[in-house]
Every structure is written in C-alpha cells, then in structure tokens.
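tmp note - Co/Zn/Cd efflux system component
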Amino acid sequence: MAMARTVRRTLTVLVALVLAGLGVYIASIVLNRNDAPVVEGCTALLDGQKVSLATDQAANASLITAIAVRRGLPARAATIAIATSMQEAKLRNINYGDHAGPDSRGLFQQRTSQGWGTESQLMDPVYATNAFYDALVKVPGYESLSITDAAQRVQRSAYPEAYSQHEDLGRGFASALTGNSHASLDCTLRKPDAAGDPAAVRAALNQAYGTMPPLVVAGGTVTAQADGPFAWSLAQWAVANAKGLAVTRVEVDGQAWTRDGNKGWADAQTQPGVVVIRLAPGQ
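out:
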C-alpha cells in the first residue's frame, strides 16, 4: 500500500510538472508573437465621445449612408435612417418578423402587407434603404424634425419613442460616413485571414455609391479620384468595410488608417485628390 501511494504521488508530481511546462511553453509562444486577444468592433466620434457598432453593423451603416450621399441627401437623412434601422433590426438584414409584423423583413423591417415591396426586394439592403429614403423625403421638413417624429412618419411603429435612443449613434456614424467628420471612424480588427479582392471592392463601391469616378486597380490597391467630403466618405466607408473586404490601409487627404496593430488614423504622405484603399496580399 505504501509503495502504491508513493507511485501515485510520483505520477501526480510528474503530471503537474508536464502541465506547468506546457503552460509556460504556450505562454512564451503567445508573448513572443505578441498576439493579444482582439475584440473587433467599430467606433465613431461624436462630440469627443465614442459610439460603437459591431463590424457587420458598421458595414450596414456605411451602405445606408453611402446611398444618402449618392442621392444627394443631407447627413440628417442618414442619421434618421441609421437610428431607424438600429431600432427596427439592430442594423442587420433580418429575414424574419415578429408577432406585431410577421411579414417584416430587412434592414428596416418593412412589411410586404404595407406595400413596401416583395420579400426578396425587402431583403435587398439597397432596395430597402432606397424605399426608406423615398418615404422620408416625402415628409415635409423632415430635416428639422426630431428623430422620433421623422422615423415614425415613415415607419408607423407601435413604439415611436424608441427611435430617439439611437440618435447619438446615428449622428456619429452618419457624420463620419458622409465625410463631414474627418478621421473619426475607426475599426479594431484582427489580421485578415484571406487576401483582398480588388474586384469585390470595386463592386461594393459601385453598389453603394452608384457609378463611381474612375477606379484604378493596381495589384492589391484600389484608387478612387475624390476630394472634399466625398473623399472622406469613401475613405471611412472603406474602414467600415475593412473586415469583409480585407482592407489593410486607407489613405486620404494627408491621413492614413492602418489596420496592422490597430493604429487607427495618423498623419501620412498621401496622393492629393485620391483615396487609396490597400488590401491584404495573397499568401
């Protein structure tokens, strides 16, 4: 019995030493690689404070805002649309309704039974966003209305006061994504797990903004001719879509956003009159 206990103690000590050694080995790898855990997400600055979205929500906010820019609508329209989509669908393209609206679909939970379109149309974010703006611009003086009043006149929700809670979020992202606020949208991201596709970037830009100025594709870089607020709209759209499109760097107007190390925006030497979107290279 004494010998058995001695053997068990010896085995226990050996197992503990092996596990401790394995822990030290794993820790040394992590520390040497400097791979601290990264919580992905996007922020926009509003009056010195940050408002936050998940990366997929930020991408949808960028599409909603780009369509406002495409239509020549003011930033207030994008603010109302983002706040509405956040309340109705958490800024996600939802393919189901609820008890109050079983046929509700899409970014704005619009209903086929209320004449918004077919289910397939409402699940198209571009169609749904344009449908929202089509209704919004028919509201007299919508730019001066509160978020609640403007959104409610379009959506006719059972809970109209709920829209107002997303006003700051809408303002922050709309201001950045319309280009009215410079270097104010940032995304914290892990390293890309695949190479970027310039054709996918070009297609996404054309879908969001319509017919773009000439886009130059060279290797893993997409360059767009733009200046002023439109340049900053494009640049911050690229940041908001960096996760899905494997964007690693965006350059505009003397500033650059860098994904590696999550460095955000900083002064940089850039080409005048263009936005440069750099993508992850192939392995």
